[in-house]
Amino acid sequence: MSATADHAEERTSPAVRLGFQPEQVVQEIGYDDDVDQELRESIEEVIGNELMDEDYDDVADAVVLWFRDDDGDLTDALVDATTYIEEGGAILLLTPKTGRSGYVEPSDISEAAATAGLTASKSVSVGKDWSGSRLATPKAKAKK
User: Fold this and answer.
1) What is the pLDDT of residue 11?
2) What kind and span of H or E run contains 133?
3) Is residue 94 within 8 Å of residue 81, measured between CB atoms?
4) Would you say 25 and 58 are in contact if contact means Cβ atoms under 8 Å apart?
């Protein structure tokens, strides 16, 4: 494959744009019938493995969290998700877009992320019905 093709894939693959990399272990939380199957397949293609389900009991490199307004408390869901990932890992929070059932206000996402100790990036469109926010966990402080 040429370098040009590699760059084209980076522009078109939502999973690559969201920072997923080959051989990562990615746990998926909040899966339901309404999730974006194309995005899931894109992530699995990039990481070279299936997404781990909620029963996965080891540490993951990243978490994909599908969250709708009626799924409960977003802060609690984010805090729970941080227990599944490595220090410095990321949570991809996926919420329905404006006007879709289960829409979550951006201010609610920012507040919940801050309360959970996460750093939020801006929201990006990841499919027809879903927006994504990449939330980073704090990296361990350097030892003196």
Assistant:
1) 55
2) strand 130-136
3) no
4) yes
